[in-house]
Amino acid sequence: MRDYEKYIRYRTFPTPWCPGCGDGIVLKSIAMVFAEMNILPDDIVVVSGIGCSGRMPTYFNTNTLHTTHGRALTFATGIKLARPEKMVVVISGDGDATAIGGNHLIHAARRNIGIKMILINNGVYGMTGGQVSPLTPQNFITETTPYGNIEPKFMASELLIAAKASFVARETVVRPIQMKQVIKKSFEHKGFSVVEVISNCHINLGRRNKMKDPMSMCDWIASRTVTQTEFDKLTPEERNHKYPVGILFEDKERLEYSELYYNHLVPAAKAAAGKKGAEEK
Amino acid sequence: MSKREVLQGNIIAAKAAIAAGCNFFAGYPITPSSEVAQYMSKELPKLGYDFIQMEDEIASLGACIGASLAGKKALTATSGPGFSLMQEHLGMAVMAEIPLVIINVMRGGPSTGLPTKPSQADMLQARWGTHGDHPIIAVYPAFSDEIYSETIRAFNLSEKFWTPVIILMDEIMGKAHEDIIIPEVKDISVIDGVEHKLDDDLNIYDRQIGEIPPRVDFFKGYPIHIDGLEHDRHGWPTIEPDLVDKMQRLRMEKVYTRLDEIIKFKEYYMDDAEIMIFSFGVSARSSLAAVKALRQQGIKVGLFQALTIWPFPERELKDRFKRIKKVLTVELNMGQMKIEVERVASDDVQTKALLRANGIPFTPAEVMLSVKEFVK
Fold it and tell me: Which 8-state DSSP code applies to residue A42?
């Protein structure tokens, strides 16, 4: 048994994912990072919402919680505040995180609560059969945009930087080595961290957009990724078709929410109570 | 010795929650329940416990479920619109069998309705608001001492039955200041869920139908899976019909085979009553005043005050209907619990309801008049 396999719950296999899906790469990468960091499986909880990504926690041999659509971060917030010493990971998809769960996303980022979020962006609602998501590129054909998507997409990572997340990175399943390194860095970060992983859904997105096999979709992803430096040199029109990858923002100084709560707010409340008690005497 | 104090209903509930062991609160401000959150934001940090104001009510109940799974006793408080938003997560807590308590201080609805006026119009939402077949436990105090004792009972029931429990109150119960003697800690009985003895098989939901489950938390040595999908005895997703059927029954029967441990009510002047008022919350108070006044006029009327709303005290009412052939339901809505009373009443029982949903509570005189017309 390889060292990362103790983090995989083989008895719940097989997974529901289509052959060639990028989710498996993400699953294994996270397990490998757990192994590299040598965390006890029982000291980890992996939380998810609904969708293909939502099924991922089932396959981790850690504490796992499969919740409602878009709300994984809210459950994770409760767990992290209750047990700040535990590793709390949230797996979410693009529809889950930025559509139905968009409100929770920006507020978790704003609070800087120490949740490690992996936002798998395959640009489509895969589990429900391929409907448009807020991260679907413009003009793409989906089951609910049969004439092409007329809405602009969110840039999820940039949205999160604006929402004050203290660690934001973007990687793709086409660059698994870099992705794993970035996930590890995000797991070592104290505050709220997000790694947006661009993944392939050749079945429910690619197939309708002339990329029906995993490789053509992965080639498309590779052709869209640039470094931040390269991205900065592009015109706004060119930027619309590219995704900068790597660590996009990192603030190591900002205090994490539960640390602020237990080390600052609680002592302040106790001191105020003590002072009041003394005055009453 | 405990001393007599004058406290707001919302504050009494908050104090009782802490006495019951509540150490986590997540909520979102909403009239007329906000004082619960405000009190918790002040008191919980003093004890080293958790308070967090979330971005909405959906998030509040999500955080409570997460905290409960992390071993905390969680509470949230809200009113109609927020309670509507919570329904999906209420179902999640029922499905995954997670103990927590929700206070719903009812105001006039539907929609934004009457934020500052009382109603009793979320009675059926409390029962059937979330989708799918499910058991639910809901309690409804009417007096200041009951707000305290029912809040403690709600936490105990949630721990004992591994299920969410709803405390219904109304704007008057929540907002009014009333005198109360807060019991001493030694006089309060607090139940903590029995911890599951886990082993590597991770059979967290393995039990016989009707059996009370032990509580399962994260971080207890064996990593477990909790799911909102229908699941097998391990908590792992399943669509296998026999398993699904068994899990549905496990959840229902843990509550419905133990009604004696859940149903609670109070009776006033019922021994020789020829006419019975069925009521709860603020309407039970108007009714009680009416009953006392009517008794002085020689009218043999009694009051059945339901403290447990769900499960409905069906057996108890059926028993009363053997003798009492007239029942008047008094409630601040367009006839929600009246449906239940009529369902339970046998054909020879005459039913009547005093109903109103305009934000104004009944006066005792109005209840008296209704009884007198009914007696004729």
Answer: G
- Residue in chain B closest to A6 (alpha carbons) equals B223
Q: Which residues of A touch B227 (CB under 8 A)?
A: 58, 65-66
In this structure, is residue A198 part of a structural domain?
yes
Cβ distance A75 to B220 less than 8 Å, yes or no, reads: no
Closest chain B residue to A42, measured at CA: B223
What is the side-by-side order of every strand in the sheet holding B265-268?
B265-268, B301-306, B275-279, B326-331, B350-355
Among residues 53-92 of chain A, which lie with CB inside 8 Å of chain B? 55, 57-58, 61-68, 71, 73-83, 86
Out of B65, B72, B222, whose CB is closest to A75?
B65
Number of domains present in the structure of chain A: 1
Determine, yes or no, domain membership for A58: yes
Cα dist from A205 to A139, A215, B342, whole Å: 12, 13, 55
Cα separation, A141 vs A150, whole angstroms = 10
d(CA B78, CA B102): 8
Which homologous superfamily does the CATH classification assign to the domain defined by B4-187? Thiamin diphosphate (ThDP)-binding fold, Pyr/PP domains (3.40.50.970)
Residue A199 sits at φ, ψ, to 5 deg, of: -125, 170
Q: What local confidence, expressed as pLDDT, does residue B199 receive?
A: 74
Query: pTM of the prediction?
Result: 0.97
- Alpha helices for chain B (secondary structure H): 9-19, 34-43, 57-69, 80-96, 123-128, 144-161, 171-175, 241-256, 281-296, 314-321, 337-344, 364-375
How far apart are the CA of A64 and the nearest CA of chain B, in angstroms?
A: 5
Domain B267-375 matching CATH 3.10.129.10: the answer reads no
Q: What's the rounded Cα separation, in Å, for the pair B168 and B180?
A: 19
CA distances from A156 to A25, A136, A252 (A): 20, 11, 21
Among chain B residues, CA nearest to A274: B46
Residue written as tokens 């490690």?
A116
A151 CB burial (10 A radius; 0-12, 13-18, 19+) = exposed
Q: Is residue A108 part of a domain?
A: yes
> Residue A106's domain is classified under what CATH number?
3.40.50.970
| A151 occurs within a structural domain | yes
Closest CA to B188 of B155, B165, B221: B155
**Contact (CB, 8 A) for B262 and B311:** yes
d(CA B278, CA B329): 5
In this prediction, residue B1 carries a pLDDT of 58
Confidence of residue A266 (pLDDT cuts 50, 70, 90): very high
Three-class secondary structure of residue B338 per DSSP:
helix
Q: Does B56 touch chain A (CB under 8 A)?
A: yes
Model confidence band, residue B162 (pLDDT cutoffs 50, 70, 90): very high
Query: What distance in Å separates the CA atoms of residue A109 and residue A92, rounded to the nearest whole number?
Result: 14
Interface check B201 vs A, CB under 8 A: no
Instruction: Give me the interface pTM, i.e. the ipTM.
Output: 0.96
Burial of B125 (0-12, 13-18, 19+ CB in 10 A): buried
A59-105 pLDDT per residue, tens: 999 999 999 999 999 999 999 999 999 999 999 999 999 999 999 99
Domain boundaries, position A84: 3-255
Per-residue pLDDT tens over the stretch B328-338: 999 999 999 99
Q: Is B166 in contact with B102 (CB distance < 8 Å)?
A: yes
Question: Alpha-carbon distance B228 to B214, whole Å?
Answer: 18
Contact B59 A64 (CB under 8 A): no
| Mean pLDDT (chain A, rounded) | 96
